[in-house]
Design a protein that fits this description.
With 211 residues, the protein is of the alpha/beta class. It has helices at 20-28, 53-67, 82-93, 123-129, 138-144, 163-174, 191-197, 199-210, and strands at 4-8, 32-35, 74-79, 97-103, 149-155, 178-184. The two termini are 16 Å apart. It comes from Streptomyces boncukensis. Keywords: Hydrolase.
Length: 211
Amino acid sequence: ETPTAVLLHGAGNGTKDRLVPLLTDFRARGCRVLAFDFSGHGHSTGRLGELSLRRRFRQATSVIEARVPAASPLVLAGFSMSGQTLADLTGRFGDRVAALGLCAPAVYAAEAWDVPFGDGDGRFSEIIRRPESWRGAPALGALRGYRGRAVLAVPGTDEVIPPAVTEAVAEALAARSRLTRLDFPGAGHRLGDWFREHPADRARFADALLA
C-alpha cells in the first residue's frame, strides 16, 4: 500500500501553508500527502487559546482516520510542538507508523496535557516555563518504545528548544528506532521556513525519512 506523509505544523503562527514545498517533495517520492491547520491556526476555525496538547492529538487522529486509507503506512513529520503530537500518535497508530520525522521537537510535562494554551500568561505557560518541567515527559517514553524509522532534524541555533530537550529526544529514539540525526548548521528553530527556502536540505530530510 502507498504510504501517506502527514505533516504537522508547530505552535504560534505555524500553518500548513509553509509545509507545501515539503509536501510536494514527498508526493514526488511516491507518497500520498496530507497537512492541515490545527484549530486557531491558518484557515481553521476555533480559537488558539482554547487549543491544548490533548486537542492537538485528537484533531490529528481525526484527520488521519478520516482522510488516510486504513491500510496506508504513515510517515509522520512534525515541527516544534508537533514533536509531542507525533509521540502521542505513535501510541494511537502503533506499527502502522512507518517513519517519524521530528524537526526541532518539543516534549511536555504530563500535567500540561489537558491545559488550554491560553494567551501566554496562563497555567500552560507557567508549567512549560518551569525549569526542567519536561523531564519525565510521557512523550519520551513513547519515543523510547518506537521501533520504526526515525529522523531527528536539529537546527544549528534553536532559540526555543533547550539543547537538553533535543538530546533527551535523541536518546529516547536511539533506544529502539532506526535513527538518523540530521544537523542543519545555518538554521534556526523554524525548520519549516528553512526547508521552504533550502530545497537541498528539504530533499535531504525527505530522503532520510523514506530510506
